[in-house]
Specification:
By secondary structure, the chain is mainly alpha-helical. It has twelve helices and five strands. It has a three-stranded antiparallel beta sheet with strand order 1-5-2. A two-stranded antiparallel ribbon has the order 3-4. Helix 2 crosses helix 9, helix 9 runs antiparallel to helix 10 and helix 10 packs across helix 11. The two termini are about 45 Å apart.
Length: about 350
């Protein structure tokens, strides 16, 4: 489960159309999509580029033979963060902005507000405290419910903090809430930003899931090769990036082995108080760092013994000349996306 939850850096072998493309082709397409979406976002309420973007996401997932469920495991947290950010994005205080909808104002007394906050905070706090009861602890061990515990704790703390802030005001004193003006500009910014970020995140995941780390770094090296004339360490950067991507699965596998070893010795990493969990994580973190440093030392020794140098001319293992499929895919994507800016 831990191996599947890593968002980037995990390569899934396959023989799909996306797998067979050169890594340079996929990198250039992703770079072009970033530029294309920047241009498309400047035109308000022009949904044709975003419809094309959603269609490209679906075609890419189908072409790479990646399930939507596999992608959802990696983007659900981003969706929640965007949902939390919708509040401050839609309203605005600019009186000259085009209004889409107005909420409020709602007039309320401080006494009523304190009572509502006290009731809500107490209910949420009781729900959170039920997760600490030994007989109900197994109910809260599910992954989604563990996240709900954090949300309940934060909601209770926020409710009691607001209750403390307004405690000094008279109970009969009135105060307005709002008005909150939802504008066309704020709504467009939220919709376009959400679609662009989600699509680019999915494209980045498809890139790493369908391209081996060696092929990906070879493509980056070839694309950055003109920078060698400026005396920039392109090959050093490529080597560091390759090692970082290559050792992500290794570190994940070693972490899983450490968790199993600690569990076999009686350690419980998934339950207990916050202090007990931090102590359990420290027992996991120290050997993980030691193992990482040991692997780094062994790797450096192996490179020195083999006489590895980044200055010499290197032979590419995966990257060759662009094929007909690469050219056709790149031209079609650029043509369709550029055409969507006109219509």
């Amino acid at each position: 489960m831990l191996f599947r939850s890593i968002p980037l850096g995990i390569y899934y072998p396959g023989n799909s159309l996306i797998h067979r493309l050169q890594s340079r082709t996929k990198l250039l397409i992703v770079a072009w999509l970033v530029v294309w979406q920047i241009l498309a976002s400047h035109r308000e309420w022009h949904f044709v580029p975003f419809i094309v973007l959603v269609v490209l996401v679906g075609i890419s997932l189908a072409g790479a033979r990646i399930s939507v469920r596999e992608i959802w495991r990696r983007v659900w947290l981003i969706v929640i963060l965007f949902a939390l950010g919708i509040g401050p994005t839609l309203p605005t205080t600019d009186l000259d902005a085009r209004k889409l909808y107005t909420l409020g104002p709602l007039v309320m007394s401080y006494g009523l507000a304190r009572m509502i906050l006290l009731i809500l905070g107490s209910v949420v706090a009781v729900c959170f405290l039920t997760s600490l009861v030994p007989t109900l602890r197994t109910f809260w061990q599910h992954k989604g419910r563990r996240f709900l515990r954090i949300v309940l704790l934060l909601a209770a703390l926020l409710a009691f903090a607001l209750f403390w802030l307004i405690a000094g005001n008279a109970a009969t004193q009135m105060f307005p809430i709002g008005p909150y003006i939802i504008t066309y500009g704020g709504t467009w910014i939220f919709i376009s930003s959400f679609l662009v970020l989600m699509a680019l995140l999915i494209f980045a995941q498809i890139l790493t899931m369908t391209t081996s780390p060696v092929a990906l770094i070879e493509g980056v090296t070839l694309l950055l090769s003109p920078l060698r004339r400026l005396k920039l360490p392109v090959d050093d950067f490529a080597l560091m990036a390759l090692l970082a991507l290559r050792f992500i699965p290794t570190l994940v596998d070693e972490t899983e082995q450490l968790i199993k070893a600690q569990s076999a010795r009686g350690a419980d990493l998934g339950s207990g108080t916050m202090l007990e969990r931090l102590q359990s994580l420290s027992m996991l973190f120290v050997p993980l760092v030691q193992g990482s440093l040991r692997r780094a030392t062994d790797l450096a020794t192996a490179l020195e013994v083999r006489g590895y140098e980044v200055d010499g001319k290197q032979t590419m293992l995966h990257e060759t000349r662009f094929g007909i499929v690469d050219v056709v895919v790149f031209v079609v994507v650029v043509g369709v996306t550029a055409g969507s800016l006109v219509f």
